[in-house]
Amino acid sequence: MIQVEGINIAVEGCFHGNFDEIFGEILDIEKKKQIKIDLLLVCGDVQTIRNKNDMYNMACPKKYLEMGSFYKYYTGEKIAPCLTIFIGGNHEASNYLREMHFGGWVCPNIYYLGNSNVIEVKKGNTTFKLGGNSGIFNNHDFNNPKLESFPFTQDQLHSVYHIKQFDLYKLNLYEGDINIFLSHDWPLSIEKHGNINDLIRKKKHFEADILDGKFGSISHQYLLNKLQPNFWFAAHMHVKFEALVNHQSNKKTKFLALDKCLPGREFLQVFTYTKEGVDLYNQFAFNNEPIELYYDPEWLAIMKTTFNLQLIWDKMPKLFDINYAQKELKIIRWQKYQQMLQAKQQLLINYKNQRIKIPNNFQITATPHYKNDPTNKLTLPNRVILNNQIDDYLKLFNESGLQLNGFLFYEPQQPQKKEIQNQFQVINKIEIQQNKEKVKQEILKQLDQQQKQQKINDNLNILDFPLLQ
Ligand code: 5GP
Ligand code: MN
């Protein structure tokens, strides 16, 4: 076995609450190969259930509802054997993940990436950018720009995990290199880049969708072509599948989907990420520096640029158009997208030299389940709270989570979004005044030039983007 400097990574498909089993498997691999796994990446359906409230906020047939063992990791009774990072699938404690909408620790050593995110992973001299997009694609809910507010109705319990156009928009503003990307369902047509016959042989019921060209998510197909990461890991289809995508830019993406955790199934893959970014199966890193997570400056700039847009969530304009006949998803209101892109580039000037470590600021925020609870009672508080982690995070770009109360969070004691919106808009306006003026002037200058060159069909309404007002 060759020793290299790098990060030993295990990737897992669907997790389905199997904390003890999957962590047990990690320990077995470590013992067998005499290595230390630095990082476990999980591609969704994790089921981080802390208590009965969470159980009833998960979309799942009633007969499969189980408490699982997450609550032991939540209380610290047990601890994940390695740093674990996950994105959400379609079976999650959606109330809890909503609390961590922009990313956060769900318990010590287990980090949820949020609805969409890009972060930096570092160990010694090796670093890589990790991106992700939680949920699965649903055409109806993608086109309906509303965000579900807690408490969720039965319908919302399902739509809450459907991919939102806003997250795709944010990821689409990312221009840097992403090395590893995580999703739950697969990019549309990814099967064409791998052994399609083998896939159909293993999963006969995929054949009709594959032949119809309807297999996978159109939003992930779009992102795969746009971001062109070195690796893309996914799950959801309950089968292992490998593909290699050669992009027009000559970049390559190695795609790997893994199965769910069941005996005898291929649900784990171990590999080593090295500084050169090459995957070295069967070669492992023996350098044992600690692994660290950092915020990504460009993502912070995107968060700041798009922050005000989500305050008008209930009136948010449609940002994408999907032409199913052409299998094409595209941005509409192109000029406005360009404005956002430029606003981000301006902010990035301030953010780019900042290296901010993701703090270990996990705190227990709900009453955990306890083993001998004979009752079926819900535990308080049954709401999506604005927790300390989101508060800390939003402070990084001078925003307050209270602006999102009433739709992202649900703090009945605090003013709801509608009451405080005006007040915060004033504060916000002052805070971003300097940047805004500069960006606005540049954009107006550019638009002026563009208008001279071509007739703009898209009727520009700058009011839709409060940042640029
Ligand atoms: P889950 O574990 O999320 O409840 O269910 C995932 C299951 O749905 C998998 O077993 C997979 O076979 C099936 N599935 C998900 N998406 C598709 C699809 O687009 N076409 C087909 N035929 N099956 C799908
Ligand atoms: Mn799933």
TrEMBL record:
Name of the protein described by the UniProt record: Lariat debranching enzyme C-terminal domain-containing protein
Gene Ontology cellular-component annotations: nucleus
GO-annotated molecular function: RNA lariat debranching enzyme activity
Organism expressing this protein natively: Paramecium primaurelia
GO BP annotations listed: mRNA splicing, via spliceosome
Pfam hit, one: DBR1
Taxonomic lineage: Eukaryota, Sar, Alveolata, Ciliophora, Intramacronucleata
InterPro entries associated with the record: DBR1_C
Domain Lariat debranching enzyme C-terminal as annotated: residue spans: 245-400
